[in-house]
Design goal:
- The complex is a heterotrimer of chains A (324), B (243) and C (298).
- Helix content of chain A is 72%, strand content 1%.
- Chain A contains 16 helices and 2 strands.
- Chain B is an alpha/beta fold and 243 residues long.
- Helix content of chain B is 37%, strand content 26%.
- Chain B contains 9 helices and 10 strands.
- Chain B is globular, with a radius of gyration of 18 Å.
- Chain B starts with a strand and ends in a 6-residue tail after the last helix.
- By secondary structure, chain C is mainly alpha-helical.
- Chain C has a single domain (2-284), classed as ABC transporter involved in vitamin B12 uptake, BtuC.
- Classes of the chains: A mainly alpha (324), B alpha/beta (243), C mainly alpha (298).
- Chains A and C meet through helix 6, helix 13 and helix 15 of A and helix 3, helix 4, helix 9 and helix 11 of C.
């Protein structure tokens, strides 16, 4: 029952990735765009694991992006380690560690409270990296990271391509596994899930950690790619919001949703930026409204006529409804 | 042999005393019934046993082991399962998947998917859901929801099954079928603790019956004794009925 | 020296109080919107600061005193709020299944849009208002208060009196009824649509005033809107939603706490206080410390 689905998804992803391999040689002018797009795609997939599969909507995922980014920046800046894959990995791990450690109290929250909590977390981390640890992080000035390969963009491209593929594999593996089943059960009804033997708290911490890791890794990559880590940039609410809209527009909770959403949002942003410059955020907000009015399941959900992801932002309910 | 017992269980919600030093014992192979007016603490007791509520005081013991502070999923994996009065199935899955979830995460975890599925199909046949097994759960009738809930609970392979008002709203034929099912479940070796309002269902099948009122146990005994117990009648009908 | 300490402490407390008054005003607006419409308006702080920016603009462009500018700005702000409400929020929350998520997400988007617009028009630089009379200060009970602080005090008192009076009117009673149970209120004949409207307008006006007060007494920048929203949420969660006194207690406590922290650890830790308090309260006691907070209706 499950194995068949895995093959189909993995093959699909593999084919897509293979198609993308020749990009720097075939359409070299667009390589930078595709790199950006791949970053969006992988972050969306990461967010979707927490928000879509597990049902915990995070409004402050930029927190993990920033942590990953700064970890890389600081490791490089202080000369502790110049081996990029390791730094990126450490960036992801620190994000994951933060998620796991605050996870237990945080996940006592659900729905709305959790969303606001993550929002607060992103802001706290922004202030922490900007002011509190100013002496270490160079505060608002940011940290410059010298580019690894100043003349060629290919290594960056293939790095992000590989990362994206890896992240797709992770998400695909989760979806069709026992873990994915547990996630879905928790999302659909936490009490019934617990009564079926699922340790909801442990699973949610796990989902939170994986999601944080993924976004942290991309944050690390971002710093190597753009060469600059800066608190307002990497902890930006715009990033958090973009993730939200990408996944929701594409189809929250689905496998392809975040990918489709990332692509569409990316296009809208580029076009919007060209046409109305800074006002493109308004376009995103309008897209969000469209989602809720017309297609709650997002593009993918509506096309495949699946039940839209209905998870009203419930607060944690310890009391069970209905008692005698 | 005493499988499940509770002593001195007390639970307060603010000013409301939902459970007042409640004791109970559940013997293996027995069907224990629990009746009482609305609000008398029956579901609260179930919530306390299964770990959804924390008791203010008292202890719950399962096979001699203290399970008072355990989380619901641990309690499920130890072998105690329950149904909820208000059924909230996993809405993104169909019936088969709903029940399979219980099987996958329930008591015995080291089974292959195939084994779980086979057992799930048996359970679905038992609860008359086999034909509908690929239907999505949104839009199920109330009765099918009940059946689904029972199936899911059974899929976790419990030794003790807590049923919370599974007969509400059933017509006499369905109620009869339910009673048969409960007896069959007992015959399979599962001990049952059942909350019910429908007297016609609970009295014939229970070995013993407990009666709650305002969070206290006011009577316990064989069904016939309870039916004639003055305190019980007062609790349900009021003192004036004897005037 | 004990007298110095007393002086410092009392100055801190008074300053904190007046800071907190602004937070309380924001919180009042937020809880009003939430109570009546069950929308958590993340854009609340941004709307208020927009009002502040508009007053600033009027002052810079036309030399009109920002306080007087309120007369022009508040209606404009309400108009903007109306458009946002009608064309952006309402359509998104039409489906009752998604009402809460949609409202939170769309107001988040709106908050970003507003602060983005502010960045475009007024640049992200920090700004401050210096009025011809900004240097005036008064001595009250041995404390020196700058005139801006006094203005804040006066406005806060005025708004409070307004609200207290309002709640005693028929409208106010209807408002409270709707907060508690919308359907029953409608069954009782209360025109919910209109009421929600007026409530939203009042809340926006209050936050506009609070925004103006904020720009009067601080250096401000576009991103401060979200910070203010979070602080209002902290106040709400701390003091309990729906009570005026709760909002004030919470706001004042927050203001004083911030003043103490800023004094002892440095100004940049100010915002951290409210974030930490919020996260702590959410984690450990989401029902609020003093009152009952129905942050999510059933």
């Amino acid at each position: 029952m499950f194995r068949f689905k895995v093959s189909k998804t993995i093959i699909g992803h593999l084919v897509a990735i293979l198609c993308l391999i020749p990009v720097p040689y075939v359409i070299p002018g667009y390589t930078a765009y595709v790199i950006q797009l791949l970053m969006y795609i992988s972050m969306s997939i990461g967010w979707n694991i927490l928000g879509g599969y597990l049902g915990d909507l995070s409004f402050g995922h930029a927190a993990f992006f920033g942590v990953g980014a700064y970890t890389v920046a600081m490791l490089d800046y202080y000369g502790i380690c110049h081996f990029s894959p390791l730094n990126i990995l450490l960036g992801g791990l620190l994000s994951m560690f933060i998620a796991a450690s605050i996870g237990y109290p945080f996940l006592k929250l659900r729905g709305f409270y959790f969303a606001i909590g993550t929002l607060g977390l992103a802001e706290i981390l922004r202030v922490v990296y900007k002011d509190l640890l100013r002496d270490y992080t160079r505060g608002a000035r940011g940290i410059l990271v010298p580019t690894i390969t100043p003349y060629t963009i290919q290594p960056y491209y293939y790095a992000i391509l590989a990362l994206t593929f890896g992240i797709m594999l992770v998400a695909g593996a989760i979806v069709n596994s026992k873990l994915g089943l547990a996630f879905r059960a928790i999302r659909d009804d936490m009490d019934s899930a617990r009564m079926s033997g699922i340790n909801a708290t442990a699973h949610r911490i796990l989902g939170f950690s994986i999601s944080a890791f993924i976004v942290g890794v991309i944050g690390g990559f971002f710093v190597y790619y753009t060469g600059y880590a800066h608190p307002e940039g990497v902890f930006s609410q715009v990033i958090s919001f973009e993730l939200l809209i990408m996944v929701y527009f594409g189809g929250v909770g689905t496998v392809l949703g975040p990918i489709v959403g990332a692509i569409i949002v990316f296009i809208v942003e580029e076009v919007g930026r060209a046409l109305i410059q800074q006002g493109y955020l308004l376009l995103l907000a309008i897209m969000l409204i469209i989602v809720f009015i017309l297609m709650p399941g997002g593009v993918v959900g509506t096309v495949t006529k699946k039940t839209p992801f209905i998870n009203p932002l419930r607060a944690r309910r310890r009391k069970l409804i209905g008692s005698a | 042999m005493v499988l499940l017992e509770g002593k001195g269980l007390t639970k307060r919600f603010g000013g409301l005393l939902a459970l007042d030093k409640v004791d109970f014992t559940l013997e293996k192979g027995q069907i224990l019934g629990l009746i009482g007016p609305n609000g008398s603490g029956k579901t609260t007791l179930f919530n306390v046993i299964t770990g959804f509520y924390r008791t203010d005081s008292g202890i719950v013991r399962y096979k001699g082991r203290d399970i008072t502070r355990l989380s619901p999923d641990k309690i499920c994996r130890l072998g105690i399962s329950r149904t909820f009065q208000l059924v909230k199935p996993f809405y993104s899955m169909n019936i088969l998947e709903n029940v399979t979830t219980g099987g996958v995460f329930g008591k015995t975890q080291n089974r292959t998917m195939k084994e779980v599925e086979e057992e799930t199909l048996d359970i679905l046949k038992f609860t008359n859901l086999y034909e509908k097994r690929n239907q999505p759960v949104t839009g199920l009738t109330a009765i099918d929801k009940r059946r689904l809930e029972l199936a899911r609970a059974l899929a976790t392979r419990p030794e003790v099954l807590l049923l919370d008002e599974t007969a509400a709203g059933l017509n006499p034929v369905e109620a009869e079928t339910l009673m048969e099912q409960i007896k069959k479940i007992r015959d399979k070796g599962i001990t049952i603790f059942i909350i019910e309002h429908v007297i016609k269902v609970i009295m014939p099948i229970s070995d013993r019956v407990m009666v709650f009122d305002y969070g206290k146990k006011i009577a316990e005994g064989k069904p016939e004794e309870i039916a004639n117990d003055r305190k019980v009648i007062e609790a349900y009908l009021g003192v004036e009925s004897f005037a | 020296m004990p007298i110095d300490l007393f002086n410092v402490a009392s100055n801190l407390i008074v300053l904190g109080l007046l800071e907190g008054a602004i937070y309380s005003l924001f919180a009042l607006g937020l809880s009003l919107i939430f109570g009546v419409m069950k929308i958590f308006n993340i854009a609340h702080g941004d709307m208020g600061i927009l009002g502040g920016y508009l007053c600033y603009w009027v002052f810079v462009m036309y030399g009109i005193d920002p306080i007087l500018a309120l007369v022009l700005v508040l209606p404009l702000l309400c108009l903007i709020a109306f458009c946002v409400q009608r064309f952006m929020i309402n359509p998104a929350i039409r489906d009752p299944r998604f009402q809460i998520i949609a409202s939170v997400m769309i107001t988040y988007g709106i908050a970003l849009c507003i602060s983005n617009q502010e960045i475009i028009i007024w640049t992200p630089d920090w700004r401050s208002l210096t009025l011809p009379y900004s240097y005036l200060s008064y001595s009250i009970f041995g404390l020196t208060l700058n005139i801006t602080r006094v203005i804040v005090l006066l406005f806060t008192v005025a708004v409070t009196i307004f609200l207290l009076v309002l709640l005693r009117t028929k409208f106010g009673k209807a408002l409270r009824a709707c907060t508690q149970d919308r359907e029953v209120s409608m069954l009782m004949g209360i025109n919910f649509g209109k009421l929600a409207w007026v409530a939203f307008a009042i809340a926006t006006a209050i936050s506009g005033i609070a925004g103006m007060l904020y720009t009067l007494s601080h250096t401000f920048y576009p991103a401060v809107g979200l910070v203010l929203t979070i602080k209002s949420l902290t106040v709400m969660v701390f003091g309990g939603m729906g009570s005026i006194s709760g909002a004030f207690v919470g706001g004042i406590l927050l203001g004083v706490a911030e003043a103490v922290v800023a004094f002892s650890l440095g100004g940049e830790y100010r915002d951290l206080v409210s974030f930490l308090v919020l996260v702590m309260v959410l984690l450990f006691k989401p029902t609020g410390i003093f009152g009952k907070v129905f942050l999510v209706p059933k």
